[in-house]
């Protein structure tokens, strides 16, 4: 009779979950033994890096991915990175080893006595099978929950379950399928169409679901059809619209009062694929400008229910986009794409300005490059200088949790090897995921890591000024040499101080991972 392990491996293989990101402990070894040759195990040296790589891989492929963590300690190490996967709605299926069943109640070493509670409320579902015979079904539930909710799930499995033999009843799980239909009804579509038709001024606010759902080009078509100004929702984690397009008005600020000011003059605001809104700075003010109404369309029910204003439709934004394109007459001023010229970059004082670095990337990297960005103090400079016109061009830590950038870049490159990947990382952020360099080197993943070194937590200094606390300790980090760190992990590295040297290095095509440390002028997000 087949074992739990064999049935589980067969199920994962049939579902296409054959790439496993992990850092194993003793409790996980029984699951990993006899792993079929069709599986790839990607080792990370810290569980936060493991989840970050898996998050990038899931976003790049659009598919669920399996993560294997160790009991309570390993799962705890991963929780900071897990917050990003939650808000990027990445379908991670996280499994963790548990002590043998007879030892859990005794709280033996490496027992997780409250396994299903540990990762809540972050995960969308958490479970531990009631018996060995329930392992295949429980794993299938974890996979289906991740797919349907687009949110990480967590399954703890006692390690003595894997060798248990099961009868044929357990194999019925292998061929299960679960589907979701999310089309809105005609009354809802008519309501949205009628309001857009009647509006004097329509604005579009687009979120990460647009890129993740393959709707980038259709969103551009809708904006041009309506001749509507477009904003990206605050703190975007994906690129939902070309940032140099003539209809693009920028990224909405992450403060209540700022959003209201920036959207002034619109009587109808249509938010597609984004929360309403993910604020950050405490900037009081009205939620909406006077005379404005808002409609939100999202597949995330939680995002719809917690919004403080407007109407919300929980549905596929793509269906709404197509209805508007077919039922709302084109603007008499409708025309195709047009792009604003790139501005001259600002120059730094004694070091390169981040705008010079981003302009160099824009001018030297292929148009289909995917950028994984985690340099929080350079947002304004980034959006001023980059020229991103393709879907899948931008990835950012969706919850703001540091440590995403370096591992996610490895995962994006693994999941989408046909496109170049550049990681743009601040020197403060880099230390949270630095061991990703080892995985990049070990698997020879051709990522270009650009480390902006200014010796400071720049975003904290900006917040200090915003909050009236400018002289707090712990905001400076001098003395870091990332070239030596990278070489220790097996990644070739170069230190750059001049713009011409930077452009020359960036113009070469990498055959494996490389790190470029660039000394930069300290800026603020504005």
Please tag this protein with its features.
36% helix; alpha/beta; six-stranded parallel beta sheet; 526 residues; single chain
Could you please describe the fold and organization of this structure?
36% of the residues lie in helices and 17% in strands. The chain has 526 residues and is α/β, with parallel strands linked by helices. Strand 17 (493-496), helix 21 (499-506) and strand 18 (514-519) form a beta-alpha-beta unit.
Write the layout of secondary structure elements.
Layout: H1 4-15, E1 19-22, H2 29-32, E2 40-43, H3 47-61, E3 65-70, H4 71-87, E4 92-98, H5 101-104, H6 115-118, E5 125-127, H7 135-149, E6 153-158, H8 186-198, E7 202-206, H9 208-212, H10 216-226, E8 230-232, E9 248-251, H11 256-262, E10 268-272, E11 293-298, H12 301-306, E12 311-314, H13 317-327, H14 354-364, E13 370-374, H15 379-385, E14 394-395, H16 405-415, E15 421-426, H17 427-430, H18 436-442, E16 447-453, H19 458-467, H20 482-489, E17 493-496, H21 499-506, E18 514-519
Parallel strand pairs: 1-2, 1-3, 3-4, 4-6, 5-6, 7-8, 7-10, 8-9, 10-11, 11-12, 13-14, 13-15, 15-16, 16-18, 17-18
């Amino acid at each position: 009779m087949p074992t739990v392990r064999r049935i589980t491996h067969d199920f994962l293989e049939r579902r296409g979950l054959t790439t496993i990101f992990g850092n194993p402990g003793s409790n996980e070894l029984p699951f990993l033994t006899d792993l079929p040759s069709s599986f790839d195990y990607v080792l990370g040296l810290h569980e936060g890096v493991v989840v970050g790589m898996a998050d990038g891989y899931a976003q790049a492929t659009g598919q669920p991915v399996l993560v294997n963590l160790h009991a309570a300690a390993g799962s705890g190490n991963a929780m900071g990175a897990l917050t990003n996967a939650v808000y990027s709605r990445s379908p991670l299926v996280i499994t963790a080893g548990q002590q043998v069943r007879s030892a859990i109640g005794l709280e033996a070493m490496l027992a997780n006595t409250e396994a299903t509670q540990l990762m809540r409320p972050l995960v969308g579902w958490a479970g531990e099978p009631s018996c060995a015979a329930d392992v295949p079904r429980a794993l299938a539930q974890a996979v289906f929950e991740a797919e349907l909710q687009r949110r990480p799930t967590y399954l703890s499995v006692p390690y003595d379950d894997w060798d248990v033999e099961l009868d044929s009843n357990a194999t019925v799980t292998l061929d299960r399928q679960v589907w979701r239909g999310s089309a809105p009804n005609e009354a809802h579509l008519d309501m949205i169409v009628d309001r857009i038709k009647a509006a004097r001024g329509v604005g579009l606010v687009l979120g990460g679901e647009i890129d993740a759902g393959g709707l980038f080009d259709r969103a551009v078509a809708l904006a041009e059809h309506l001749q509507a100004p477009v904003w990206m929702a605050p703190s975007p984690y994906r690129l939902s619209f070309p940032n140099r397009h003539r209809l693009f008005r920028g990224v909405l600020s992450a403060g209540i009062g700022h959003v209201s000011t920036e959207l002034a003059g619109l009587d109808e605001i249509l938010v597609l694929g984004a929360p309403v809104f993910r604020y950050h700075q405490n900037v009081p003010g009205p939620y909406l400008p006077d005379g404005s109404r808002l409609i939100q369309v999202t597949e995330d029910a939680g995002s719809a229910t917690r919004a403080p204003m407007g109407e919300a439709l929980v549905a596929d934004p793509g269906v709404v986009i197509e209805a508007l394109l077919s039922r709302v007459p084109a603007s008499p001023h409708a025309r195709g794409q047009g792009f604003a010229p790139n501005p001259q970059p600002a120059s730094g004082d004694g070091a390169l300005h981040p705008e010079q670095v981003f302009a160099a990337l824009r001018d030297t990297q292929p148009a289909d490059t995917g950028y994984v960005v985690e340099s929080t103090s350079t947002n304004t400079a980034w959006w001023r200088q980059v020229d991103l016109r393709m879907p899948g061009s931008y990835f950012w830590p969706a919850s703001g949790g540091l440590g995403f950038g370096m591992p996610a870049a490895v995962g994006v490159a693994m999941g989408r090897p046909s496109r170049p990947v550049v990681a743009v990382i601040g020197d403060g952020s880099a230390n949270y995921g630095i061991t990703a360099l080892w995985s990049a080197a070990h698997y020879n993943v051709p990522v270009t890591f650009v480390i902006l070194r200014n010796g400071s937590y720049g975003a904290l200094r900006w917040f200090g000024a915003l909050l009236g606390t400018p002289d707090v300790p712990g905001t400076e980090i001098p003395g870091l040499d990332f070239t030596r760190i990278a070489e220790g992990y097996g990644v070739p590295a170069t230190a750059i101080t001049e713009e011409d040297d930077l452009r020359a290095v960036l113009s070469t095509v990498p055959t494996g991972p490389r790190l470029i440390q660039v000394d930069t002028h300290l800026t603020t997000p504005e």
